[in-house]
Structures are given as C-alpha cells and as structure tokens.
Amino acid sequence: MGGGRRRIRFSKIYTFSWYSRRAFVNEPDCLEARNLAYVSNYVSTTKYTVATFLPKSLFEQFRRVANIYFLISACLSFTPLAPYTAVSAVVPLIVVIGATMVKEAVEDWRRFQQDQSASGGGEFDSTDWKNLRVGDIVKVEKDHFFPADLVLLSSSYEDGICYVETMNLDGETNLKLKQALDSTSSSQEDSSFRDFRAVIKCEDPNANLYTFIGTMDYQGQQDSKLRNTEHIFGAVIFTGQDTKVMQNATDPPSKRSKVERKMDKIIYLLLCMLFLIAAIGSVFFGIATDEDLSGGKMKRWYLRPDDTEIYFDPKRVAAASIFHALTAMLLFSYFIPISSTMFINQDVAMYYEEADKPAHARTSNLNEELGQVDTVLSDKTGTLTCNSMEFIKCSIAGIAYGRGVTEVERALAKRKGSPLPPRSEDSEWSDGAAPAPAVKGFNFKDERIMGGNWVNEPRSDAIQRFFRLLAVCHTAIPELDEDSGKISYEAEELGFEFYQRTQTSISINELDPSSGRIVQRGYKLLNILEFNSTRKRMSVVVRDAEGKLLLLSKGADNVMFERLAKGGREFEEATKEHIKEYADAGLRTLILAYRELAEEEYQAFNKLFTEAKNSISADRADKVDEAADKIEQNLILLGATAVEDKLQNGVPECIDKLAQAGIKIWVLTGDKMETAINIGFACSLLREGMKKIIITLDSPEIKALEKEGNKSTISKASKANVVQQITEGKSSLSKSKTDAFALIIDGKSLAYALEDDVKNIFLSLAVGCASVICCRSSPSRRPWSVTRLVKTGTGNTTLAIGDGANDVGMLQEADIGIGISGFEGMQFRFLERLLLVHGHWCYRRLSTMICYFFYKNITFGFTLFLFEAYTSFSGQAAYNDWFMSFYNVFFTSLPAIALGVFDQDVSARYCLKFPILYQEGVQNVLFRWRRIIGWMLNGVCNAVVVFFFCAAALEHQAFRKGGEVISRDIFGAVMYTCVVWVVNCQMALSISYFTLIQHVFVWGSIATWYLFLLAYGLRRGVGPRAFLLVLTLLVVVATLIPYFAYAAIRMRFFPMYHGMIQWLRHEGQCDDPEYCQMVRQRSLRVTTVGYTARIEAKSGHRHRKHKVHSNLYAS
C-alpha cells in the first residue's frame, strides 16, 4: 500500500469521459461526502408518508363521484337553501370519509412494518440497514441479503470471489460469480479495513442490473443474497432509492374492480334521477307558488306569500323554482349511498407449512374481482412446477440410460390405457432393503453405469468424458453438510465427485478404469463462457494434468447441434431420437459436447476474449459473445442429459376445478413444444380427444428460407405462414361446435401473432379454445404483451400468477396479480380455494351489499320525495335533521357491512364440490343491471307502501286528549320507525348464513333507533304503544311479502346456481351423484379441460355408442 496511489478501472459497459458520482470509502462523514448529500438507505414501499397522507388520501376519497356530491351538499348546507342543518350534513361525511382513510392508513401501516422488517437485518458494527451511507464498509455474512449496492472489496476466499443469488431480481436461480480487485482481495480480517481509504468515482444510479463502470483511487449489491461464501466485505456505492433494485422498481398500477367501476355508473344514474325529480318538483312548486296569490286569495296562507322571502315569492316564480331545485337536490341526496380481506389472510387451508407462509392479500380493493376471473395466465417453471431439477435420464454415445419414470410418463401410460409403470423408488427397494438417503437433484437409477459398472460398457471412453464434462463445466461450488460433513451435491455412485473449486482450478475425484480406484484429478480453469438467454449455452476452457486444452460445452439442442464438427456427429441421430423421447416424457434436456484446442488457437482466442471483456464500449456484451462464438465450433457430440422439473402437488386437481368453474387457462413457458404438450397432459390442461391447433414455424419451407439467410424474406414468409395457420385454426373451430380445442403456439409464431395487424384474429382463435399453451416464449415477450392482449381484447377479468420476479410485468398488467413468495412452485394449488371459495364469497357479498345500499337509500329518499309532493313540493323534510344524518351511520349500515364480511351462501366445502357456482361471478349475474334496477324498484315500492300506510293511518287520527292531530315531527318519527324496520328486515331476508354478529347488527340497529328515540325525547309523543306496534308490523309485512314471494318462487322454479345447491343441501341430496350431475349440467360453459372432462368425454362416447347399438337393434 505504501507504493503510492493507484487508479483501478473495473467493469463494464458504458463509456464516460468523467464520472459524476464519488464515494469516499470508510470516510462517509468527511466534508466532501457530506456536501454530496446522497439519499439515505431507507427504502419505503408505502403509499403515503406522514406529510402526504392527508392530501393524497383525501384526493383518493374525492375521486369518487358520490363523495364529491356529498362535499358540495355539505358546503351548500351552510346556506339558507338547505332543508337541514349544516352539522347534520357534515358529520356523516366526516365519519365515512374518516373510516375509509383509517382503513387506508392501516393497510399502509402494514406495508411500513414490512419495510421495517426488511430494513432491520444484517448488522455490522451494530448498525441497521437504514443507517448505512455511501462510503461505509459493510460485512455481509452467508445467506444474508445485501443491505445496499456494494463494490466487492474482499471475501472469505483467498482470491476474493463470492457467489450471489439474484432470484429476487431477475428470477434466475443460478449463482452469479463475483470477484474483488486483486489490490483489495487480500484484506480478509475486520481489522484490515480500519485504516482503509479509497475514492470511488462511478456512473450515476441507473436501472441496468448487469453493468457497472467506475474507477477507484486507492492507497497501498439489496434483494440479492450472498450464497456459499462465509462473508464478504464491500463498500456502499448506492443506497436507498439509488440502488439497482429500486431503479428497476415500477410504481404498481392503480387498479379498480369492475364492481367499483360499475358503481360509478350507478351513481351517475341516481344523480340523473335526482336531477329529474328535483326538476319535476321545482316545476310543480313554481306552478303552486304562482297561484298562491291568484284572485286576491292566499292558497297557502301558512307560507305568507304576501310577505315572504324570494324562496316562496309568487312574484319571482322563476327564481323561487331554481332555488327550490337546489333545495330538492340537497333534500334528495339520500338517494346516493355514501361510500364505505382478513379472511383470505387467515384461511389455514391456504397456509404453506414448509415455508411458514400464509396467503396475504396486499389490497382489499380487488377482492370481489377474484370472483369474476375469466382467464388465468400462468408461468410454468416455479408456478406449475417446483423448479427443482432432478437428473433422471441421459443419452451417452447414442445409448439411453436411466430407469426412472417421470410423472408425465405415468400420465401418458394412463392416457393410453397401458399398465402404470412402477415408481422408481418403489421398484428399487422392493426386496425390503433400506433405501439410500436421497441426494438433492439426483434421481438417476441404472445398474449399467452406477457403482462403477460403466467401465464395462462398450463406449466407456465416451461415458468417462460425458461425466467428466458434467463434473467440470459449471459454476457450482461444493457445499459441506453441517451435520455429516459431506458434500451435499454429488453423484459418487457414478464414480465422479466434484469436491473443490477455486477461482483458477476445479478438482474432482473420478474412477480410474485401468486400476479401478478413485483418483484425484485437477483442471486449471482458464475461461468461463457464461450462459445467457441469447447464447443458450455455457462453456469452459480448462487445461488437464497432461497439459491438454479442452473446450467443454453444454446447451440447448437448437444451438448445439449446429456447432458440431462433421466428424463429431457420430451419435447425432440416436441422440435426437432420445431427446424427442425425453421431451415426450416432460424432461428438460441439455446437449454435451467437447473438443481439444491447439495452443495457438487458444492463445488467439484468449487475446480476443480478454480484450472483449476489458472493453468499456457500449457493445461489450456483443464482443464477448462474438469471441465465444468463434471458438464454440467444430464440437464433438457426447450425448444429452435429461432432468425432471416435477409438477407441484395438487396442480392437476386445481386445473380441473378451475375448468369446471368455466375459467380458461393459458400457460406461458420457454420449454420445447413436445415438453410443453406433455406437461399439459400431465397437469390435465390437455386430454385425449381434444383437437390440437398447433402453430409453428418449423415447416420445411421456412427452414429452407432460414438457410438462405435473407431476413426480410424470412420475416414476410413467416408472418404469412402464421396468418394462414391461424385462419385454418379458426375454420376448424367454426366447423365443430362440440369438440374441445387446444391451441399450442411456439415463440417465433407468437411474435408475429402479437403484431398489430394479426393479434385480433389470433385472439379470436385463442378465446375459442379451451386451453392455450405458448411455448419457447422469451421473458421479454411473456410478461405483459400476451396478458394485455387478453385483457383488452376480451374485456374480461384476467388473473396472472407467477414467481413475482421475471413475471412481475405480467402480474401488473393483469386485473389481478398473484405473486408466489418464498419457495417457488408451492402455492398454485391454493388458487383453487382463493377463487372458488373466497372469490365467490367476496363477489356475492359485495354485489348483494351494494344492491342493498342502493335499495335502502332509495327507500329512505323516496319517502322524502313523497312527503314533499304531499306538501305541495315546499322543500320541507319529512324527518328531523339528525334522523337523516344517522340513517346511514347508525341505523342501517352495520347490517350491510356484516353481510359484506360474514355472509356465505354456501359453505367452502360446497364451493369446491360445485365449481359451477363460480360462473355466477364470471357471468356477473348478481350485479347486472336487471338485478340492480330490480333492487331499486323494490326500494321505490317499499317507500310507497310505507308512506301511504303511515299517511292513511295517521293523517286524521286524534292523538292528544284535546283532539289534536299529529305534528310533522311525530309523523316523521313513525314513518322513520317503519323504514328502519323494513330495510333491516329486508337485510335479514337477504342473509344466507346468520352469525351472532349479524344478529347483533340487524336487531341491534333497530334497538339503537328506539334508544335514540327515547333519548331524543320523542318516544312518549308518537302515540299509543299498541297502535304503533300494529302499524309497524302491518307495514313490514306489506312491504316484505312481495319480495318473499318472489324469492320463494325463484328458489323453487327458477333457481340460480347457489339456489340449486342450497336446495340440494336442504333436501340432503348433495351426495347423490344423479342430483349433483343435474346441477353440473346447468353450466353455461361445457367443461373441456381436466380429468373430469376426460371422464365425461368417455361417458358421452359410451352413451353415443350405446345409442347407435340401440338404433341398430331397433331397425
């Protein structure tokens, strides 16, 4: 260090003549660092802050048209136009808006707590993450997350390397190798950094995950995790909002459910009704006012038209009518209902025990949307499958090895009616011997090459090279098990064990065929040609103990076969045949090949490759790929590996239930078409008897054009070919109305199908199919474009489910995004309960609750209109100010909220047993205009009955000893009592599942009204108790009998899906197969996917066959 200052340049891609960002390493408190004023390391995902909560939350509340209307009404209530006091108008608005803001605050507080839990771990020198500043040196230990973006200074390895897991950033599970600068890698003790000083000059914060450039003047990375390295030391370079992960973060889109959007339309309808009746009232009021002084007589003498204000002045009728219209709009504001998840979070049936993770609803605004999903778009790897690869088969020198049976093979055998092959673990230990402990990722069984028997095979030399390549060509590192002290990842039964790795060497133990002993072999690691989604392969250049230079490669078949030498294709045809068989078995394959390099050839390559890696130009990555491509040629084929990515538990059953519910399922995967098709069969997405429409660009004509290399010609011909295939597919759909179709399309074809002039015809084909599988789809194409097409093209509710990393675009684009957290691939089965149970409940509860809210407000508001008409449209309110204020707050709202939270038309068991229930939400039968208007008309009818019954009973009735008739206050109190009873009893009739809370809320609301009446001093003035009870009972019975009769007739003769199931449950026939089948046959969407569809198809085939035989016999 004493040799003066050195400037070191490190990584990668942009070229700058100067760097604007400076980090003073280990001196974050120096004057220059303070002047830079970089952001803190505190990261917040909350929607609000203390300063912004009030204005932003108020803005959110007053985006709703109803709340704006009530705000205007509250302001006008301070003027003489108001028929009630200002306090009675303002208090309910404050209560409801305040309650909604409290709900928003609670949800945001939970997000804040999650931020705190994510910002409080990984301490070094007793400081929390949020306290880190640019320039601090931090120590990160194994399996801990990086607290900020760091420049690696050193690690527990002598050569300063570490392995980083970036799954939460880019969805990739493979570890990334990082290496410190030679000048700092020797500092491996805490004390080494006590006097460490350096200045890092680098690029400004940006979103590029894989590039970084800067310089370090030296004397003498958050949401990625350190793996397989005990600890590292790093200098903080970006903090908080400047980190790569936050630069890549996008604000979640504002999503509103269809129910909420439709509510706005209903509010507009009610506003139009309000303006209409206000206008009608003002016209009649104007006519009556104009006649008040006609003929020198005062008709409405009590208004003193000869000496009055402008509001009742017969000489200024036009102005009086306008003012009356404003008064009426305030009076009839009760037509508009004022606005007002935990069960998903607390459902133990959606708890994943292994990861200790329950389901978590991040927002309560979209819960009802869960009951209206029409299409599910799913990632495959890590969502339908476990993303845990197991080595199960291989092809070496044209010979297939591996006795294991995959889940897809078992499904294939079941489809074909063949005897089911035994599970490999069952057959292996059928003699009663204890099985060997399972090794993660290794499920290979074949006595021909296990236990060292491969030395007796005819091509043992190729087998040796094959497994040697597997042991050397990778970026894994050995990991010791803490209990046994053995390496966790190994396949020693094959005779090859990778046991040590450094930055420059790889060591393995392998079986020597000549001596039969295990010998140690070391390989000098010269270059790693890394895997990426463009190259689809990885290679290493190593020098063995004899000094030979070897290029070892593995990759996808479509890029590896074209790189084989003419003399290296000895096993090509046999290997291709095996690959096809492996794809049919649902396995993922890699081709293995190698070649020896001449010293001169390697030196030329190494010079070119080193120059490309050290380049800081914008095309650095292209230069590196070009250098690698030049040497990855003329390879000699060794064979292929096949690994199984197993389906999650419960996936076929879940897909079957969703299909019965009428939900369409799209799967997007990067697998080969054959693999995707067979995975589709294994998970019940496809079945025998379905007609498959396959759109692919693997035709001989397109391949011939690709060989010619004219990109323009290839593009035009490919697009025309795709359009032709789509057109033919639509023709097949139109010809058959009974057959089930599945659409399978590859990635190249999908690119053309999503172009603007093609996407509509592609969508019309896709929506006519029972299931859609998009194969070989690249991550750049998958996240949002397909989802957006389905969402905007169909107008139906879409749900996307993925691992939450590379699928985040798809999740944000869909109406509902379901992210899998923690372990990939263990939660898809919960989709069944989330949609069919909670989705159905939420949709039905909210739809009924909203209809009820409009009903009860129209019932109340229309009594005001009738009373005003009864009083010659004078603008006089029928009720006391506080009666009107508390109507929506205390006397009618709690029962509706209880219904919206607790009601269940059928139990969870029956929701799952009869998925047809879910179609109520998909078809929107509970919130269509006919039902909404029906509830509104019910409210109008109830208001008419209440008003005229009360008016007829009380108008000429003498209530006092002196013979006086009732006053307006008493009449209003009696009519109000009847309204409270009617709307709460209507709620009781609408509830399917009574709980103690609902009983308390319904009957408690009525009791609260009587307590309020007593406290207000009107209880004694409303007349004889018996008379009031009889009148109330008569009004309630008269108003509810029509609804009760309608509901009974509908349940008995025209039941909806939930009504049929309630009837079956009541009759005790829910377990009768015949009755259950009758219910399922009422489905508007025929079940075409899943094992239920397969059974029904076989049953239908037998029925048709039997019918044919019967006809033949009859003839």
Automatic annotation (TrEMBL):
Q: Name one GO biological process term.
A: phospholipid translocation
Where is Mg(2+) bound in this sequence?
A: 379, 381, 803, 807
Ordered alphabetically, the record's keywords are:
ATP-binding, Magnesium, Membrane, Metal-binding, Nucleotide-binding, Translocase, Transmembrane, Transmembrane helix
Pfam family, any one: Cation_ATPase
- The P-type ATPase N-terminal domain sits at 26-88
InterPro entries the record matches: ATPase_P-typ_cyto_dom_N, ATPase_P-typ_P_site, ATPase_P-typ_TM_dom_sf, ATPase_P-typ_transduc_dom_A_sf, HAD-like_sf, HAD_sf, P-type_ATPase_IV, P-type_ATPase_N
Q: Does the keyword DNA-binding apply?
A: no
Query: What top-level class of enzyme does the UniProt entry assign?
Result: translocase
Origin organism lineage: Eukaryota, Viridiplantae, Streptophyta, Embryophyta, Tracheophyta
PANTHER family in the cross-refs: PHOSPHOLIPID-TRANSPORTING ATPASE (PTHR24092:SF175), PROBABLE PHOSPHOLIPID-TRANSPORTING ATPASE (PTHR24092)
Q: Where is this region: Disordered?
A: 414-434
Q: Binding of ATP: at which residues?
A: 379-381, 531, 554, 588, 669-671, 776, 806-807
Q: Name one GO molecular function term.
A: ATP binding
Q: What family does this chain come from, according to its entry?
A: Belongs to the cation transport ATPase (P-type) (TC 3.A.3) family. Type IV subfamily.
The name this protein goes by in its record: Phospholipid-transporting ATPase
The membrane topology noted for this protein in its Swiss-Prot or TrEMBL record is: Multi-pass membrane protein
P-type ATPase C-terminal domain sequence ranges: 826-1055
Active-site residues, as the UniProt record annotates them: 379
Please write the reaction equations for the catalytic activity of this protein: ATP + H2O + phospholipidSide 1 = ADP + phosphate + phospholipidSide 2
Cofactor(s) for this protein? Mg(2+)
